[in-house]
Design a protein that fits this description.
Number of strands: 3
Radius of gyration: 27 Å
Helix content: over 70%
Number of domains: 1
Number of helices: 5
Order of helices and strands: HEHHHEEH
CATH architecture: 2-Layer Sandwich
Shape: rod-shaped
Strand content: 5-15%
């Protein structure tokens, strides 16, 4: 329904063409990503996420180092080990490998969740700024030009509001 409304509004604006402003129709466009990346909260959240990623990466590297050390020791000693001891050490190595694999997956999930949680209030602030700009400036529609969502629209009837949004979010 939302895409239909967007398409309908763009169609009206395009049909009206140059006369759109005569009818009081204002259309604006902006880059959501560009505005988002200019927000002070964005750079802070990215720094925090990088620190979190670095902590998990360090822990994963340590776990891999522990596994590699135990595996090399096992390879050096396996010929001289009794069969039950060799099987126990193989099982221990397999369990350690599985724990490391599970930790890697859990770390990735936790980082993704942390990113989602960190970005939610920032995106809300930007969404609120978009609403505020649209309401206060009388725009019929504000179009996000990211991700090729709108392959074409006439810039003759639309205004770039990216800078106005950047100012609103600072």
């Amino acid at each position: 329904m939302r895409k239909f409304f967007l398409t309908f509004c763009l169609l009206i604006a395009t049909v009206l063409g140059a006369s759109a402003q005569q009818f009081g129709i204002k259309v604006g466009y902006f880059s959501y990503d560009e505005v988002l990346k200019q927000m002070p909260e964005y750079s802070i959240s990215q720094q925090n996420l990088e620190q979190l990623r670095a902590q998990y990466a360090a822990e994963l590297k340590a776990a891999e180092g522990e596994f590699n050390e135990k595996y090399e020791l096992f390879l050096d000693q396996q010929a001289s080990l009794a069969e039950p001891i060799r099987q126990k050490r193989q099982a221990d190595l397999q369990a350690l490998l599985e724990r490391n694999t599970q930790f890697r997956a859990e770390a990735e999930r936790l980082v993704n969740q942390a990113e989602k949680d960190a970005m939610a209030p920032i995106r809300k602030k930007l969404d609120d700024a978009i609403q505020t700009l649209g309401n206060t400036q009388g725009y019929l529609i504000l179009v996000n030009t990211d991700s090729d969502a709108v392959p074409y629209f006439s810039k003759n009837i639309a205004q770039d509001v990216t800078e106005a949004l950047i100012k609103l979010t600072k």
